[in-house]
Amino acid sequence: MAFTVTFPSPYPDTTVKDLLEQHLLIPRKIRHFLRIKKHVLVNGRAINWQSLVQTGDVLELTFDEEDYPEKTIPWGQADIVEVLYEDDHIIVVNKPEGLKTHGNEPTEIALLNHISAHCQQTCYVVHRLDMETSGAVLFAKNPFILPILNRLLEDKAIHRDYWALAEGDTEKEKIYRDKIGRHRQDRRKRVVDPKNGQPALTLVRCLKSLNGASLVNCQLKTGRTHQIRVHLSNHGHAIIGDPLYSKRPASRLMLHAHSLSFVHPLTLEKITVVAASKTFEQVLAKWKSSSYKK
Hints:
It is built from 6 helices and 18 strands. By secondary structure, it is of the alpha+beta class. It has 3 domains: 3-63, Structural Genomics Hypothetical 15.5 Kd Protein In mrcA-pckA Intergenic Region, Chain A; 78-155, Pseudouridine synthase, CATH 3.30.2350; 159-261 and 269-288, Pseudouridine synthase (2-Layer Sandwich). Strands 7, 8, 9, 10, 11, 12, 15, 16, 17 and 18 form a 10-stranded mixed sheet that branches. A 4-stranded antiparallel sheet has the order 1-6-3-4. Strands 2-5 form a two-stranded antiparallel ribbon. 34% of the residues are buried. This is Pseudouridine synthase. InterPro entries: PsdUridine_synth_cat_dom_sf, PsdUridine_synth_RluA-like_CS, PsdUridine_synth_RluC/D, PsdUridine_synth_RsuA/RluA, RluA_PseudoU_synthase.
């Protein structure tokens, strides 16, 4: 995969070496290739590895096939992608419910394949949503930006807010800290497992009470599989329409990734997107009118 990345440096004054290593997280082997091939230009000029890059200097990096070998996947349908934000490196889309974020098999078509068709290049998953969940999800458009976004995710610098319609009347605000592990009998499910589970933290805030249910905002501080679904169901507030954890039916799982925000790692611009879902709003409207009540 050959491509060039050009951007004005927003970072504090630093050397080329430290910029590539500490801010851009470029692996040692690729940094070596960049140096010996003179594929790092600052303001259009080749520079010494210890040269100072100042805020506003234009950095140009050129990567060859040996830096990032070509990765190809089948392309899907570009016209079904709803873009919430996009630039040369990052794309945030509104995922519909009922569609996987990425396939389990090389030939399986999922959201990743549709996004790659839209971008006309192979894209990369940063985080995922369950197939039944809709809403905002972030992808990298090249392998250069992927580890930087992964670090933001690990550092909890990508903020994700979900809306859910939960059974019963929830507390106004609550923090769930239950550890989550695998279900021993059902591989599809997760359970609260205080002894062997992984730490999980969900902040839940009630937005509105609706006919024996609550519209809640959930903020993830960790990213465990089915985290919101397990935390809410464990405390008696299973998400309506959840095929695994709830007996209250609806035409879809009532969980939606409502908003996503982060500081762009190359420009330091604050990016915030809000995703809408017609199907979520339709079920919510029916619940308000008691159509689904009990």
